[in-house]
Amino acid sequence: MGGNYYEVDSQFYDLYNALGGLNVFGPAISPKFTHQDSEYQYTAAALFVFNPLSPAGNQISFAPIGLELGIAGQGSMGEDLGAGLFIYPGFQDRKSVV
Are 91 and 79 in contact (CB under 8 A)? Predict the structure, then answer.
């Protein structure tokens, strides 16, 4: 995988590592950024979200990337979804973790 990588922000670091870190999520591929009062950071496999308005203990979640891309519920592991999109076969064993 080529490209620029970033440090996982301290806001997400503990959860990132607790759920498998680099082996599950891949590297951070964006810096942390703010949008509509929440903070976000992309990794190769997930979009971490920190919502300060959520109750303590529930402030970090994952954004539904598949819905944003219009591919939620489509395809099977490793299947080409067109437009260069595919479901990474490595998620087969990990899909219930996140």
Answer: no
DSSP 43: B
- DSSP-based three-state secondary structure for 25: helix
38 strand-pairing partners:
35
CB 25 within 8 A of CB 97: no
Q: pLDDT tens, 68-83?
A: 666 555 544 445 555 5
Q: Whole-model pTM?
A: 0.69
CB of 45 closer than 8 Å to CB of 26: yes
Q: How many Cα atoms occupy the beta-carbon half-sphere of 74 within 13 Å? A: 14
